[in-house]
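Comment thread on ticket #2218

A.B. wrote:
> Attaching the input chain for the structure job we discussed in standup.
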Amino acid sequence: MGLAQIKMPQLGESVTEGTVDKWLKHEGDLVKRDEPLVEVVTDKVNAEIPSPFEGKLVKITVTEGETVSVGAVLAQIEVKDAAGAAAPPAPAKPARETGAARTEAPPAPAVAATAENGGGERARLSPAVRKLAAEHGIDAGSLRGSGMGGRVTRDDVLAAVGGGQAAAAAPVAPPPATAPAPTRVDGTREELVKLSVMRRSIAEHMVRSLATSPHAWTLQEIDITNLVRYREAEKENFKQRHGVALTYLPFVVQVLCEVLKQYPWLNSTWTADGVILKRYINLGIAVSIPDGLIVPVLKDADQRGFTDLVKTLNDLIERARNKQLKPEDVQAGTFTLNNTGATGSVASQPIINQPQAAILTTESIVKRPVVINDAIAVRQMMNMCLSFDHRIVDGMMAGQFLGTMKKRLEEWTPGSIRL
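C.D. wrote:
> Ran it. Output below, let me know if you need it in another format.
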C-alpha cells in the first residue's frame, strides 16, 4: 500500500491558483480511476478534476472555499502499490454540474513564494498575489496575512491598495490576540448569503480594475433605424438558411472592429514601459449567467466574415451560459463589448476589463421623436456608452471614436456587410 497525492492542476496557461469549490468524495470513500473527485474554480473557468488513481481517499488537505497555488496537494489517496501511486495524473474532465469543458493541462509543481509578515514569520505568497502586489508597488513583506498560517491573500493586497499603502510602508503591527467578530445577522429579518467563488472573483476583479486605472466615461446616441429595418426584414430568412438567430450584435461587432483599426489606442494595454498597441482584435463579449458574469473572447474578430461572426458569437454565448467554456475561450481579450440593452438599460457606466484600455456598451433600442431637417420624426435610437483608461485615451479621442461608431451605424446599408 502507498499514498498518492492529488494536486491542483493548471487550468490555463496564465492561471496560477485555483479554489476548491466542492468535494465530490469524502474522506474514507473508495475512488475509481478517472472518477470525478473535486470541482475547482479559477478566475478563468470551472472544471471537475478526476482522480488519476484508484484507491481510498484518506485525507483532504484543502477545504471547500480555500484558494491554493497550482501544484498544491489537494488530497491523498491510499493505493495498492507504489506503481499505482506513481501513475501520471489525469487531465481535468468536463464538470457534470458546472458544465465546464475539458482541459488537457496537467498538474504542474508550484513554486511557493514567501514574504516576511509583520510578526517576523515567513508567510506563503502565491504567484498571483505576488504579481498583484508588484503591480501596485506594495511591499508584501509589510502586510499582515489574513489567510491560513499567516498567508498574504489578494484581499490583503487590495486592502493595502485601498488604504494608499506604498512600497516603503511602515511595519504592520502584530495581529490582535482575538479573532474578528463574526458578521451579525438578524435571523428573523436578514439572511447572510455566502459568496460563491465566481462572485468573489468578480468582486476582486472590479476593485482591482478601479484601483489600477483612472476611469472616464462618455455617451452618444445613435439613430439605427436603417439597421433595424434590415434586420427585421431578413431575420427569418437568415435563420432558415443558417440555423441561428440574427441579432444586432454581429452588425455592431463588424463596425466596431473597423473603427478599432482606425483608433488603435482603444485596443491597447498600459505597461510600465509604454502602451502596447494591438494589431489584432480579440473581442470580449460580456455574458450574464445566473451566478455572475463571464467574458468569452472572440479571437481575430476583425478577420471574420458576417455569417462566420454570427455563428461563432452564438456558439461562444451558448457555451458561456452552459458553463462549457475552455480556458483558452476567456484569454487574450483586447477590447470588451457588453450588450446592457438586453436588460432594458438606456445608459450604463461599465468597469474596464483589465488590462484592456476600454469597454463599450450597447443600450436598449427605443423609438423616440427626433428632429430631422426641422421636422419631428419617430426613429429607432440607441445609446452607446464607453468607459476608457484615461492614462491611455483622452476625452477627445474617446469622443472621436464614438462619433465614428455613430456615423458608421447611422449610415449603415446592406452593402456594409463584410461577407
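A.B. wrote:
> Thanks. Noting for the ticket: DSSP finds eight helices and 20 strands in the chain.
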